[in-house]
Specification:
66% of the residues lie in helices and 14% in strands. It has helices at residues 2-20, 29-39, 41-60, 115-181, 187-221, 246-256, 258-278, 323-392, 398-432, and strands at 24-27, 67-76, 80-82, 91-93, 98-111, 229-232, 284-295, 308-318.
Length: 441
């Protein structure tokens, strides 16, 4: 009975451990980007900045609304004392001691030289700049995830290659043991392949660690549970990537580059700010209306214990004479900022053009590299088959077979790297043109 209980406890523990582990989850780049939009802390920071810019606009629009001021007060008034101008013949008059005052005034700006309108427009442009900042950092997160994802895919494919070669190496070792027993193979031949197997096993251990590291980076960036295991989509290598002309990507970059759009908007915003500053030369005109209720009436002697109410409507004019010498300095500063922003725009245009061209050249080169590695793999496999057949017929030494095996393994590794390299360079080209999210389509 004791052993039965121990057995059930052990089974329960095993089931608990298995259920606590998260099984592998196949994810495509599309799903990866979608998770980043909802989970990435970096993206959320800049989404918050966009919301803050929207609130700034909402606050600025309050300037279109009328101002309404209300005041009320209660006071204790002393008796009135009246004297001649030389303070002689002073007399005291009894006054009502309770005083009250109520006042309400409303004003509506009807003309401010366009300052309110242009200030709101400047804030709207600032919101667009925040949106392009968000787009830029979203692209950066996408590209970083893409790099980790492709590395993970490459390491998993390489792991399959090494494990397959380890199985083949074990088969060769077993065959050599049989040949040794038959007296046609030396112990030294077996040792060479056992060393080969240990080297493959070490490489496999490195790949397992690299897979875990890349997986942890993806899981952390996407804020997923630590036990999540991400499995790349195996159909990724079957994508048929086109080779459009460079002009298409250059045009896309001009239209979609966050850096270019941000610099263009910065110039527009500075021009709007110039209009706001220039409005300082203009007066501010407002319509005002108010009502005052006050008591007692203290400007009569003796003081009258009555309330007096006065209402009024009119036009208010406000003009700051100090702006006549302050505004030119502000305008000069903004002009310098605009010139600097224009120069920065020219510099960014050159940088984006060069980056797109470099990425395009690398993208085309990756196809040639893939073609070369595919041919190399074909030749390496054919060479290994020939060497294996010759070794089986005792025509070559085991060192020649080991060299052929290493050559085949190297060709398989390089071919997988070349396949991933094509996809990476395509994503890099999309990233430089500001359209990395289009890889989802």
């Amino acid at each position: 009975m004791r052993y039965i209980i121990i057995f059930f406890i052990y089974c329960f523990g095993v089931v608990t451990i298995i259920s606590a582990q998260t099984t592998g989850q196949v994810m495509s780049l599309t799903e990866l980007y979608a998770l980043a939009d909802s989970q990435s802390k970096t993206i959320k920071i800049f989404e918050t900045a966009v919301k803050g810019a929207e609130q700034e606009i909402s606050v600025a629009k309050n300037a279109y609304l009328p101002n309404i001021d209300f005041t009320a007060s209660a006071s204790y008034n002393s008796n009135a004392w009246v004297a001649d101008r030389d303070f002689s013949n002073g007399q005291t008059f009894v006054s009502p001691h309770f005083g009250n005052s109520f006042s309400v005034e409303a004003s509506q700006v009807v003309f401010a030289g366009g300052a309110i309108h242009n200030n709101i427009k400047a804030l709207e442009i600032q919101k667009q700049i925040s949106e392009w900042n968000l787009a830029e950092h979203r692209q950066q997160v996408y590209f970083l995830l893409t790099g980790y994802y492709l590395d993970l895919y490459k390491y998993r494919n390489l792991l399959d290659v090494y494990e397959r070669n380890m199985e083949q190496t074990l088969e060769v070792i077993d065959d050599m043991h049989a040949r040794e027993a038959a007296g046609v193979a030396l112990d030294n031949d077996i040792t060479r392949y056992e060393v080969q197997y240990q080297n493959l096993n070490y490489k496999r251990t490195e790949l397992v660690s690299s897979i875990e590291i890349c997986n942890n980076k993806l899981v952390t960036m996407l804020d997923l549970p630590p036990q999540t295991e991400i499995l790349p989509d195996t159909t990724l290598l079957s994508l048929r990537l086109s080779r459009p002309i460079e002009t298409e990507f250059q045009n896309k970059a001009i239209e979609n580059s966050p850096a270019l759009n941000r610099n263009r908007l910065t110039i527009d915003m500075l021009n709007r700010q110039k209009r706001v500053v220039r409005a300082g030369y203009m007066p501010q005109i407002s319509i005002i209306a108010g009502d005052n209720l006050k008591g007692p009436i203290t400007y009569e002697i003796p003081t009258l214990d009555n309330n007096i109410n006065v209402w009024y409507v009119g036009v208010g004019l406000k003009f700051s004479l100090g702006n006549m010498y302050k505004v030119p300095k502000k305008m000069e500063r903004l002009h310098s900022s605009i010139v600097q922003a224009q120069n920065e725009l020219f510099s960014v245009e050159e940088s984006v053009t060069l980056d797109v061209r470099s990425a395009y050249i690398r993208y085309l080169d990756s196809f040639e590299l893939l073609k070369t590695q595919e041919k190399s793999l074909q030749l390496a496999r054919e060479n290994y088959e020939v060497m294996a057949n010759r070794y089986a017929n005792d025509l070559i030494l085991v060192t020649d077979l080991v060299d052929a095996d290493n050559l085949r393994l190297s060709a398989e590794v390089q071919y997988i790297n070349a396949q991933i390299n094509v996809i990476y360079n395509y994503c890099k080209l999309l990233y430089e043109s500001g359209t990395l999210n289009s890889v989802k389509e």
